From TrEMBL, chain A:
Record-given protein name: ABC transporter ATP-binding protein
CDD domains per record: ABC_Mj1267_LivG_branched (cd03219)
Database matches in InterPro entries: AAA+_ATPase (IPR003593), ABC_AA/LPS_Transport (IPR051120), ABC_transporter-like_ATP-bd (IPR003439), BCA_ABC_TP_C (IPR032823), P-loop_NTPase (IPR027417)
Gene3D superfamilies for this protein: P-loop containing nucleotide triphosphate hydrolases
Cellular component GO terms, alphabetical: plasma membrane
Pfam families per record: ABC_tran, BCA_ABC_TP_C
GO molecular function ontology, one term from the record: ATP hydrolysis activity
SMART domains (alphabetical): AAA
Naturally occurring in which organism (per UniProt): Bradyrhizobium centrolobii
Keywords, alphabetical: ATP-binding, Nucleotide-binding, Transport
Function noted in UniProt: Involved in beta-(1-->2)glucan export. Transmembrane domains (TMD) form a pore in the inner membrane and the ATP-binding domain (NBD) is responsible for energy generation.
Domain ABC transporter: 10-257
Automatic annotation (TrEMBL), chain B:
Chief localisation class: membrane
Record's subcellular location: Cell membrane
UniProt-recorded Gene Ontology molecular function terms: branched-chain amino acid transmembrane transporter activity
InterPro entries: ABC_transp_permease, LivM-like
Origin organism lineage: Bacteria, Pseudomonadati, Pseudomonadota, Alphaproteobacteria, Hyphomicrobiales
Tagged with keyword Hydrolase: no
Keyword check for Cell membrane: yes
A GO-annotated cellular component: plasma membrane
Pfam families: BPD_transp_2 (PF02653)
Membrane topology: Multi-pass membrane protein
Transmembrane intervals: 23-42, 74-91, 97-119, 126-147, 174-191, 224-244, 250-267, 274-292, 298-316
Name of the molecule in the record: Branched-chain amino acid ABC transporter substrate-binding protein
Record key words, sorted: Cell membrane, Membrane, Transmembrane, Transmembrane helix
Amino acid sequence: MTVPAGSNGLVAEGISLAFGGLQVLNDVSMTLRPGVITGLIGPNGAGKTSLFNCLTGLYHGQRGRSSFAGTPLNGLGPAQRAACGITRSFQNLAMCPDLSLLENVLVGLTLKRRSGWFSAFVPTPAQRAEQRDAERRAMAALNELGIGSAAHEKPSDLPPGTLRLAEIARAITSEPTAILLDEPAAGLNAVETRDLTRALKRLMRSDLVLLVVEHDMDLIMELCEHIYVLNFGSMIASGTPAEIRAHPDVIRVYLGDDADA
Amino acid sequence: MAVSDLAHASKTGVSARGGHVDIARLSVLALVVALSLLPLLAGGFLLYSLSLCFANALAVLSVSMLVRYGGEVSIGHSFFVAFGAYAVAIVEHRLGLSIAASLPLATLLGAAAGFVFAFPSRRLSGIYLAVATMALALALPEILIGFEKFTGGFEGLYIAQDLIPGIPKALQRYYVALAVLGLVCLALAHFRRSAQGLALLMAQAQPRAAEAIGITRSWARVSIFTLSAAVAALAGALTGFASSTVSPNSFTFFSGVFLLVGSVVSLNGLSLPAALVGGAFITLVPTYLAQAGDWVPILYGVALVVVTLVANAGDLRRFLPRGRGR
């Protein structure tokens, strides 16, 4: 896929992160281009989630810069980055148990909704119309991921596969320009993982930045067009799945080793 | 109309899910009708007690709102209740206006007071926030006595003006309190489905995930505390109107603790029946067990322990409508 030089997507340059004396990320750079599904892999403890959290604003690296579509992100927290159009999912399912699946997805639209505090307590025609519209959008996101039939169930009554897909539905419902998924296949069985792969491929658009951090090598190799490999906090390789498969360092630290990592 | 009855956002789920939602709604409606007709049969002291009970039920609701939507506990909500009650009394004494003007004003002032407290303490949670609210409740009597010129000091102030002149006072107190309580319950049921309501529930259950979709924790904390303080002040305004008097004795540190007790006893419910259970527990139990005297706090303590144990065992929650997902 060719990307114009100007639309540089989500860029991280020279990120270094340390917790006390522990260097977690060491001068890591990566570019997430729109229209390309990018994968980030690495053994346990390689720093994948730390890098992910740096991109989403949960952590702030001691050094380095990040920008999104040319806008600097340094110093912005998660909520401000969400306002820039960057959404994420969580490794541990982050569903509100009191809300139905549909409502859990509806929450993803919070920043887009315009009804004020008065109409939160007193129904007004405008608020009702807005509510219907938001529900329609949330429902569309659930349907896009094939779990519309579970819309009115409570999360506690649903299998993890459905909840994973619902998290992704929540991430896409606000029509973000960047979606970062933290181990979306964790805890899923083979069938659910296949559904997830299909769903992710289906929602890919030419203007969307999509990053998948994953343990599951098969998923990454099948899904991603560009892959970064992290080990001990350093980026050791990047390239197409074929290049990554053939990369000697990657074979040594990851694929060649006992891949249970 | 209970909040928990309205757990689904769209109407599509209602008919498919059987009739017990409607039964719950009908029973609440029956309760409202029964309470509306009660003054035809009863009078005097019972109506007076029930008016106070409705006002206290609203105050209990304000604490339950904070628990449900904010995941926080306040020991000092009596501060905001007193704020509303004194607002009504002072507006009547200084401006000569009736509760028609002072009720909305008290609510707005309560919201403002809640915001002024919540903004600096927006990073506090759990026990630290609870202790901070406790400081409010402890400071309250001193503040009331210190501003004697406005508050009437130890003696307090009388609230004498009628809402609608010519209608018996007992009926006015009763119906105003009942109507406001009912309307707040309806508004809260609507709030549960609103964008803000969903955002607050999300921020409480999954703060990090909420942050990732643009809902900051401090926004959530400040918002729910402000709302809760507004409802508490509204409850205070009704308390003042229902009892025709305000004095520091009505708003001690223990008033705040009792509101929390009421909220726990009502399982932090936001429906009309739950609020009435909480309100009745803290109003009618002391009134009708007055001869028990010193035993009332002990009774409260025992009730608190029992309710907490039972609720946490999940034995009661199973019978609540919110378990409908099964």
